């Protein structure tokens, strides 16, 4: 799977969980750039992404992400 | 503490106390819930208990019946499949169907059955473990 394809799928998850059709994620996007990406929604986002890609993250992986691009890299290592 | 497919069971009674307490607090006096004749005219055996009484039982299960009190409900969904009547006993069963260790969250599938073994409600609930 290409990184751009993962970005598209993750974007769909964000739109669904945050109820915001206007979200357009980039590799550089951080929580500060997206309205309502707070700690509670972060849990729902992670759960939804784990479900969508049928993968599991560790808490260390989640804490290491600096932006969406790093999240996508992590997903790619698990779906490859 | 929690493992996939762990199963929990609990029995609840939709007693006069529970019913009257729900009515007193939430004031949903719709005749389907308060008038036997009204409910019977619409094909039910008698007045139908508020579905959200079952959500109260669900709250009790999460808050009081798990092996830790460090829990919080993140989200839940419930389908009401069959009516529950006054003084019915309902048999609750929940199974852990997913564990998200990365964010300390669990998901249960649950059912409520009546004394005849008929599913009266079913759904999913996701909780977080606080510490």
Q: How many discrete structural domains of chain B?
A: 1
Helix content, binned percent of chain B: 25-40%
Order of helices and strands of chain A: HHHH
Q: In this structure, how is the largest beta sheet of chain B organized?
A: 5 strands, antiparallel
The computed structural class of chain A is: mainly alpha
What is the H/E string of chain B? EHHHHEEEE
Q: How many strands in all of chain B?
A: 5
Could you give me the name of the CATH homologous superfamily of chain A? ACP-like
How many strands appear in the DSSP assignment of chain A?
Answer: 0
N/C terminus separation of chain B: 12 Å
Which CATH architecture of chain A?
Orthogonal Bundle
Averaged pLDDT of chain B:
97
- The top-level CATH class of chain A is Mainly Alpha
CATH topology of chain A: Non-ribosomal Peptide Synthetase Peptidyl Carrier Protein, Chain A
Helix/strand-derived class of chain B?
A: alpha+beta
Q: Please give the share of residues in helix of chain A.
A: 55-70%
Q: What would you say the CATH architecture of chain B is?
A: Roll
**Tell me, what's the shape of chain B?**
elongated
Largest sheet of chain A: none
